[in-house]
Each structure stands twice: as structure tokens, then as C-alpha cells.
Write a sequence for this structure.
């Protein structure tokens, strides 16, 4: 690990951490979970044993994320008790300093097997809904515009894209047009369904982390990425939708599901972009991207895809 990153982390944390040791807080894994990829997460430890986490965002992350908005969202989640307490958010240094939700304190990173537990799924949904009730983040975002921007970056960089990427984008554009015609409301949102961006406490408490895709968006966009991540089929996802919305609404369920397909395409493009441009060549960006392209492909090929376009 470059000493400069450790120095950036200590400096951002403040004078009291100048002599702290720094160690990697988690193993980095691009595939299959996209864990710890957006920056270097360090555990700073004082001589008396006190710790904190300092996350120095990687420059690559700026190719798909707005760091100022991500840090603002992290602070907002902290204030609402929905994320780890944040003590420093230094955008210029690309560094976020927060409390250490450690294994020793009973916290674990979310995994798909943990989502098999109904109470855990419901708690994640409740946390996302509670964040929707906080103040606007001031930056309107949407997966459809993000797909177009990422595609342009991939093409400019000659990133490794699948042969059917144009077909995938066309299908997602049809979803965009259908949803846009019905109108949307926007709320502040996490925007990221990857379960590794959820911390689970020993008492079942949930904290949301990694706000790279945060912004003001359709709440059903925030839900859609989670539905496709947490459930194997639409029928399995209905209960989670009902927990989120209060009742089942076929049109709004379709909307959320289409957003989820678009999110898979977005992450496929992010994986491809970093595979083609990042100097961090040891990470399996392309493998992750290929997996998300596959999920998007499966969604677009589903015979019910056209039906969903007609009723959102």
C-alpha cells in the first residue's frame, strides 16, 4: 500500500491520529461482490486501541461517481442514524472518516445468504425508505442517463464491451421512455443495490455504506436495484415490494423491475470501463461486468419484458 495513502488518511482524520497505525480494513473483491473497490479503506489504530475507518476514494471512482454527492449522502445517513457516524468528509482529499463498524463490535458485511432472512431484507428496505425521508441531496441522477454517459466513456476508451451491448441499450431506452411517459417523483436515495454496501449488526441493525451512486431519484429506482439483487425471481420479490410500498401495485412493481434491469446494465458498463482504463489490473472488473451484463440480458430476454413496458 502506498505510504501516501496512509498519510492522506491520517491527515484527514486529524492531529489526534497522526501517529496511528494504518492497516487494510477489509479484503478487496471486485467479483462477485464489488467490495472495497471504490477506494482504499484503512483502519487507523491509536496506541490506546481506539480505531476509526478512513476511506480514500480511488481516482477511478470519479469515472462513475460524484464524490461530493457521495460524501454528502454519507453525512446525511450518519445524521439520520442510517449509516456509520461520519466525523470527516474531505472532498478535496477524497477521504471519508467514520466510526469503525468492526467484527469485534458485532458488525458484518451483507451477503446474499444473509438476505435469505426475511427480517434482514425488511430492515434493509426500511433503512432505504427512511433515507428517502431525509433532505434532498441537490443532485438529480438517474440510471438511464448514467447508462448513456458510461457507454460513451466505454466507447471512447475502447473498453471491452459485449457484442450485444447496442441491443441491451436499446431495450433499456425503451424502459426509459415508458417510465418517463408516466412521470416520476424524486427523493434522496442510496441508489445501490449491491448487498456488500450494507452492514448488519449482531442485533439485526442495518447501516448503509458506500454512497457512490447516491442522488435524488425515483424511489422505485432505489428499490429496483435491491429487488434484483436480493431475489431470484419476481414472485419472490413481491413481498419485499409490498413492504416498501405498503401494498402490491403491478405497474409500480414493473417500474421497479425495469429499473433493476437498467442497473444491471449500468454495472456491466462500469465493470467494462474500469477493465479498459484502470491501472488496478489485479482486480476482476471484467468478470464482474460480464456477470451484470448477463443479468441485464436475462431481464431483457424475459417474455414478460414487453408486458412490463406497457404498464409502468
Amino acid at each position: 500500500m502506498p505510504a501516501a495513502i496512509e498519510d492522506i488518511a491520517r491527515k484527514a482524520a486529524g492531529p489526534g491520529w497522526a501517529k496511528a497505525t494504518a492497516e487494510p480494513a477489509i479484503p478487496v473483491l471486485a467479483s462477485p461482490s464489488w467490495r472495497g473497490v471504490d477506494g482504499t479503506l484503512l483502519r487507523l489504530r491509536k496506541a490506546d486501541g481506539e480505531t476509526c475507518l478512513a476511506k480514500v476514494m480511488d481516482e477511478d471512482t470519479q469515472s462513475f461517481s460524484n464524490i461530493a454527492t457521495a460524501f454528502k449522502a454519507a453525512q446525511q445517513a450518519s445524521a439520520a442514524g442510517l449509516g456509520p457516524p461520519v466525523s470527516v468528509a474531505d472532498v478535496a482529499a477524497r477521504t471519508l472518516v467514520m466510526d469503525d463498524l468492526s467484527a469485534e463490535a458485532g458488525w458484518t458485511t451483507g451477503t446474499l445468504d444473509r438476505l435469505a432472512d426475511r427480517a434482514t431484507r425488511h430492515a434493509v428496505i426500511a433503512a432505504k425508505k427512511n433515507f428517502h425521508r431525509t433532505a434532498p441531496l441537490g443532485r438529480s441522477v438517474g440510471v438511464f442517463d448514467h447508462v448513456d454517459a458510461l457507454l460513451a466513456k466505454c466507447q471512447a476508451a475502447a473498453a471491452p464491451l459485449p457484442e450485444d451491448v447496442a441491443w441491451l441499450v436499446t431495450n433499456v431506452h425503451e424502459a426509459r421512455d415508458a417510465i418517463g411517459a408516466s412521470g416520476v417523483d424524486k427523493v434522496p436515495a442510496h441508489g445501490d443495490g449491491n448487498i456488500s454496501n450494507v452492514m448488519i449488526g449482531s442485533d439485526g441493525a442495518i447501516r448503509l455504506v458506500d454512497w457512490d451512486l447516491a442522488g435524488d431519484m425515483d424511489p422505485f429506482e432505489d428499490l429496483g436495484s435491491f429487488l434484483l439483487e436480493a431475489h431470484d425471481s419476481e414472485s419472490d420479490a413481491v413481498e419485499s415490494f409490498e413492504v416498501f410500498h405498503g401494498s402490491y401495485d403491478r405497474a409500480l412493481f414493473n417500474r421497479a423491475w425495469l429499473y433493476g434491469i437498467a442497473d444491471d446494465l449500468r454495472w456491466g458498463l462500469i465493470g467494462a470501463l474500469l477493465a479498459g482504463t484502470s491501472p488496478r489490473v489485479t482486480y476482476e472488473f471484467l468478470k464482474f461486468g460480464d456477470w451484470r451484463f448477463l443479468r441485464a440480458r436475462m431481464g431483457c430476454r424475459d417474455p414478460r419484458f414487453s408486458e412490463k413496458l406497457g404498464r409502468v
Summary: The chain has a mean pLDDT of 94.
